Amino acid sequence: MIKIYNTLSREKEAFQPIETGKVKMYVCGPTVYNYIHIGNSRSTVAFDTVRRYFEYRGYEVEYVSNFTDVDDKIIRAAKEMKITPAEVADTFIKAFEEDTQALGVKTATLHPRVMDNIPDIISFIDVLVEKGYAYAVDGDVYYRTEKFERYGKLSDQSIKDLKIGASERLEDEETKKKENPIDFALWKSAKADEISWDSPWGKGRPGWHIECSVMATKYLGDTIDIHGGGHDLTFPHHENEIAQSEAKTGKTFANYWMHNGFVTLGDDGEKMSKSLGNFILVHDILKELDPQILRFLLATSHYRRPIKFGDKAVEEARINFEKIKHAYSNASYRLNDAVESAEDDQAIVANFTALEAKFVQEMDDDFQADNAMSVIYLYAKEMNLYTERSIVSEAVLKQAMALLANMMAVFGITFEEEGMLDDDIQALIDERTQARLDRNFGRSDDIRDYLKEQGIILDDTPQGTRWRRA
């Protein structure tokens, strides 16, 4: 049984879906005014991995992740770029899709956009006003936080403490309009030269928090199984989503709340900060780093723990990725001379399936990716030991490869077949083999060096020479 650490209860809980065999999952998506940075990609990859594991375990996952395409940052970017906010959003939604596809992220079941859901947002706010949970002031609409029982339950904060924290903002012009300094905006009145829509309260645009409440409930229902996002969204964004949604529907908004950890920069773990200007864009990283290695780094750490992104971490990910890929490639190579079956096939396969069961045990425990990877490293070692045998079974190799591929697919890692030995490479390897038999080691070394320059690494094994890409 899968267990999930629920931020709301602050403990691990057995996962019980609303509908047997199905998972309804909403994950907060990016505000599309720029390329995504490494922190954004951590959240995207973390919840893609969670989704993939549910599917690995046989669940049907309905996965919704929004695009915030109406925001102060988008409006500012539009002015700077001299295009419309919609064009800014279109540009960076396309960039998001390119970057995340490179990282092996599955396309969401649905990627709703705020601009396409304005009528639903207005209707949602209107219900909150009618119920007394919201009030209008000069074209703005605010949520009445003190009316919602247990506001602060997700972030474990009390209204009293929040009011004390907000006291320093009492002189702020917007705060003066509110009944309570911790009330938050549902609808913002239009400013000159800014995108806006007609509403019962005048021209304006939605606040950030209401957007996700509307799109989550519209596309997944009043109560969803899992709501995910970065740890920094716990308060106020997710806290406000709960208040809005549950006030409108009278039902639990999400049964499980999941939050991923931060990404820090460098081997010393420096926190990313806009004020420091040290955000690293995935768009730039992928110009220099194999996307699969970045995916491996992001996906194979436990989602709730912070990740250090630096040279040391990248190199460690590259080495571990190559170890697993090499084990798979070794098995693929041995298919060339494998026998159909052998007497000990059943015992060997039982060993591999037992390791897969251990992998499932670790992932069932709140998606413990790092522990699951330790199992996979052992699995790769066992595969290598088997492929070193003089006689190997085709049946065992194929099953071992399939199990490894399935486990690694949970982390978004695939093994691309490179065409075991094309004619040109094979001809050079054959020539090198003959040169060694003739003790013409100079020619043998020349061929090895030439292939190395082409990115081809040769491995001399008892079963013959094989190659792999560097």
UniProtKB/TrEMBL annotation:
Residue ranges of domain Cysteinyl-tRNA synthetase class Ia DALR in the record: 358-421
Catalytic activity: tRNA(Cys) + L-cysteine + ATP = L-cysteinyl-tRNA(Cys) + AMP + diphosphate
Key words, A-Z: Aminoacyl-tRNA synthetase, ATP-binding, Cytoplasm, Ligase, Metal-binding, Nucleotide-binding, Protein biosynthesis, Zinc
Entry binding sites for Zn(2+): C28, C212, H237, E241
Location of the motif 'KMSKS' region: 271-275
Catalytic EC class: ligase
Cellular location(s): Cytoplasm
GO cellular component: cytosol
Quaternary structure annotation from Swiss-Prot or TrEMBL: Monomer.
Family indicated by similarity: Belongs to the class-I aminoacyl-tRNA synthetase family.
Protein's UniProt name: Cysteine--tRNA ligase
Protein's organism: Jeotgalibaca arthritidis
